[in-house]
Design goal:
The complex is a heterodimer. Chain A is an alpha+beta fold. Chain A has 19 helices and 22 strands. Chain A starts with a helix and ends in a 26-residue tail after the last helix. Chain B is rod-shaped. Classes of the chains: A alpha+beta, B mainly alpha.
């Protein structure tokens, strides 16, 4: 091959074509194939995705009274790379004084080489403004402020177990704050911004923006007026009887709406960091107890519903002691023949056991489950437990005589209240509700919780029969005369169960006393449950549900009836209202 | 004479065209710079207004929180206990009745609050 001029020229041209083709391919590769990657890298240098924080929704009671809302606060952070060594001592002196921080800890933090140190959370805006001015005055750099919001509970400890609280990351971790977190949280927005060398936003180059959606407002079924009545009475009960634990629930049987719920011990929601775990438990839904005689409503309802007996059928109650399965079952008083109604009125253990025996293990167990025991009620409160109901194959020989009187079963106070609400509601088991509705900030309804009937547990006639029998309990013949409310017919049942020892067996001399009732008995407006665990009475013979929990129910029911504007029956009004059962006086029982 | 006339003759139309074109370009350029600066200035104003608005919102939130805290049930009850507030019994003429009054059988007996003036 001869290297003449034309050949050389062609060769050079080919080289250039190849070279520029390579450049072109590279350019196309970078601009098209790798476009997103390099555009992203470039954007990272000057484009910033600024979050727009959503505000957490407000929680209110049924009347719109605020139970939880937000207050703007600031977080103080330090970037030590922006603080010169000469200024550290000055910064420590100022910050320790203004933020009430330990100077040694602060000096240690500021001496490190970290770029982001949180010095103080939840600083009120007024305090932040004052600190900002002082930092400017002293020409201190490296201390920055971030906007935040703190959750505030205006009523302190009132309704603390129902409302719950959030963690520092604004995530609900207890109560409605946790169960409704999805609605309360809202959705953060964002805005793409560019900033200049000084870090200032160049508004001209604002990019895509999505507004934040504030959290929805959650309206509870709780009525703070009724809650206040309940809180005052539970406090009075704690002062008088010093129980280890106490729970009171008020609910509307037709809708399942919980009107009030209080537990002791409790805690202040605004000072939850100082509360002990024991104080934070919502015992109405996470505590198990043996219900005692209040459980007899289930036994009697099952026997009547299955037509094994009629309300006036008499059952021999063995004069107070009955040997069954090699173990003696006692009644509190010796009874002979008692009607089914009177078994409830007198709270006969032997009578209840015989009713259960007439049903048989399997049928009785079926009814216990149909009343909702052994499963969660579905209330919008986190941590609810099932309780413990053993299937018949795990029962002992005497279980059929012990379960009817509320032993060998473990239920939550709310399950017990729901069971009584079933009687009050014509046999319909309703899902209890603590949330009434959810609305957006603009007011439109997002969700409304309507009553949810789980099942028809017993026939309406059976519910009526039980209701009639329970009226006798709150009479001079029954175990809870002190639970009466002047002007109203009340249906109710007392319970006194020996406390279960966690190590096995029962604790001697310690009782869980309770009373569940509803009024007016004909058209129930509310069901009330009072449970006191280990109430201290001056004499052991005073520690009964009818004597301790009954009067508490009476006072609550009387005030609640007035508040709900229920018309009393004039012929039922007695000159004296039932007073508090004095733990020092034996004359009242 | 003829040559000098030929050499110094000014093409006024062409000159005018260039002057106008240059002036237009200059005005366009200056306008671009002015408008760009205006945009930046307005952006800064927008930012300042946003900051002011955010500050006002924050103040409003703080005020709302204070109102809620001071008018909460617990706060009012505390005030009542301290004697700052007093409960005044409702007089008969201030009661709104929702249902006809039932005669009370005796003094101080409980009875519902009812309104017999509804519809009048």
């Amino acid at each position: 091959m001869r290297w003449n001029g034309r050949t050389r020229c062609a060769l050079v041209c080919i080289c250039f074509v190849l070279l520029f083709s390579a450049f072109s391919f590279r350019l196309v590769y970078l601009q098209l194939v790798k476009h997103d990657k390099y555009a992203g890298l470039a954007a990272e240098k000057h484009v910033y995705k600024q979050p727009i924080y959503a505000e957490r929704g407000v929680i209110t009671d049924v009347n719109g009274e605020i139970l939880a809302h937000n207050i703007p606060v600031e977080i103080v952070v330090a970037d030590t790379s922006h603080i010169t060594k000469e200024k550290v001592a000055e910064a420590v002196a100022l910050l320790s004084q203004e933020l009430k921080l330990d100077p040694d800890d602060l000096a240690e933090k500021l001496a490190s080489d970290r770029h982001y140190i949180v010095l103080k959370r939840d600083l009120p805006t007024s305090a932040a403004d004052a600190l900002r001015a002082k930092l400017r005055e002293q020409n201190l750099r490296g201390i920055y402020f971030e906007h935040d919001a703190a959750r505030l509970y205006p009523n302190g400890s009132m309704l603390c177990h129902v409302i719950g609280f959030t963690d520092f990351d604004h995530k609900g971790i207890q109560g409605v704050e946790a169960s409704m977190d999805e609605y309360l949280r809202g959705q953060d927005g964002y805005r793409y911004i560019e900033h200049d060398r000084a870090g200032q936003e160049i508004v001209l180059y604002r990019g895509q923006e999505r507004a934040a959606r504030d959290g929805y407002q959650v309206h509870l079924s709780i009525d703070l007026n009724l809650q206040n009545i309940v809180e005052n009475e539970i406090d009075a009960a704690v002062r008088e009887y010093s129980p280890q634990k106490a729970t009171i629930i008020l609910m509307r049987p037709q809708t399942g709406e919980i009107l009030a719920m209080a537990n002791r011990p409790d805690f202040d929601l605004n000072q939850r960091n100082t509360a002990k775990p024991e104080q934070m438990k919502n015992r109405a839904v996470i505590d198990m107890m043996e219900p005692g005689s209040t459980f007899k409503i289930v036994t009697a309802a099952a026997a009547l519903n299955e037509k094994k007996v009629r309300p006036d059928t008499t059952i021999f109650c063995e004069n107070g002691a009955w040997n069954y399965g090699g173990r003696i079952l006692h009644d509190h008083h010796p009874y002979g023949e008692l009607s089914v109604q009177d078994i409830l009125v007198k709270s006969s253990n032997i009578g209840a056991a015989k009713l259960a025996l007439s049903l048989g293990d399997q049928k009785f167990y079926e009814y216990i489950r149909r009343f909702g025991f052994g499963e969660r009620t579905g209330v919008e409160l986190p941590g609810e437990i099932n309780g413990t109901i053993r299937p018949p194959q795990n029962w002992s020989k005497i279980s059929i005589t012990r379960i009817p009187m509320g032993h060998e079963v473990a239920v939550t106070p709310l399950q017990m209240a729901v069971a009584m609400a079933t009687i009050a509601n014509g046999g319909k088991l309703i899902t209890p509700r603590v949330v009434k509705s959810i609305t957006a900030a603009e007011g439109e309804t997002v969700s409304e919780f309507s009553p949810s009937v789980v099942r028809q547990v017993i026939l309406p006639e059976t519910a009526k029969q039980i209701s009639n029998a329970l009226r006798g309990v709150v009479s001079d013949r029954g175990t809870a005369a002190a639970a009466a409310v002047p002007g109203f017919v009340i249906a109710g049942k007392t319970g006194t169960a020996q406390k279960v020892d966690p190590h096995g067996g029962y604790e001697r001399g310690k009782y869980v006393v309770s009373f569940i009732g509803f009024l007016p008995a004909d058209h129930p407006e509310f069901v009330g449950l009072v449970v006191l665990d280990d109430a201290k009475t001056s004499k052991p013979e005073l520690n009964y549900g009818g004597l301790v929990a009954g009067p508490i129910f009476s006072r609550i029911a009387e005030k609640a009836a007035r508040y709900l504007d229920l018309a009393p029956q004039p012929d039922l009004i007695k000159p004296t209202a039932p007073g508090r059962v004095a733990s020092t006086s034996a004359s009242r029982h | 004479m003829r040559r000098s006339t030929q050499l110094n003759r000014l093409n006024a139309a062409s000159l005018a065209r260039w002057v106008v074109m240059t002036a237009l370009l200059a005005v366009a350029g200056l306008s671009y710079v002015y408008l760009t600066l205006q945009l930046h200035w307005l952006g800064d104003r927008q930012k300042a207004f946003e900051t002011t608005l955010a500050g006002l919102r924050k103040q409003n939130d703080v005020a709302n929180v204070q109102i809620a805290a001071l008018t909460s049930r617990s706060a009012l009850q505390r005030r009542l206990k301290e004697g700052y507030l007093k409960m005044v019994p409702i007089t008969e003429q201030n009661i709104v009745r929702l249902a006809p009054v039932r005669p009370a059988p005796e003094e101080n007996a409980i009875r519902p609050v009812a309104n017999d003036q509804v519809g009048r």
